[in-house]
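User: For my dataset I need records formatted as: sequence, then structure tokens, nothing else. Please produce one.
Assistant:
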Amino acid sequence: MSRRGFVRAGFAFAAIVLAILFSSLGFWQLRRLGERRSQNAILSSRRFRAPIGLNAIAADTGSARFRRVRVQGAYDYANEFALTLRTRNGSPGVDIITPVLRAGTDTVLLVNRGWIYAPDGMTAELSKWNEGDSVNAIGFVETFSRGPAYVPRSPGRQRAYRWLDRATIESDLHRPVAPFFVVIAPDSETGYARPRATPASERRVNETPPRVEPRGLDEGPHKSYAFQWFSFAAISILGLIFFLRRS
């Protein structure tokens, strides 16, 4: 075989191998898209089920994510804190995380009561948003996830966290923390059973913070990635055809 023939054969082999590789990656992304859609369907269905009690949550809390639950207990405002750098419709703010004390257990449940505006996304007066001494509301389960490498506490600020790290919060509260937390649902009732005794000069027309919407169940970038890989495969084949015709 001539040198030119070797070059043509080598180019054809490389183009075909790349086309197969790119196509495989495209089909892999489509499989991941299918898995993501199936998972989203499961999570979405949990939002519409009747709420259950906290004691009914399985030990595998991952299987309970987005499950609607009824939260009952007493708000521990003395130990609540801010989850910083949260946005809502493009505005900076914080989420209010309040421990809930429940009868018959020393394990506290962290509850996300809602979002409030903070100009710097970190500093806010949480006491203005105390709803009541006790809570009786509907929320959905969220699970703790492995956070970033940096320290969870907001530097230079007391009672503020950049992300929820269960071990750190247990250390700060000196009490065990439930292996999941609850976000009060936007369609829940007011969220408290007995109004807090507040002087008339300090009362607010609305002491309930805007509730946090459930996280969106998007399909991720898998579809666009699949399109890109299939495009690369097509380019490889078309390039091979063009090369062979020219040579």
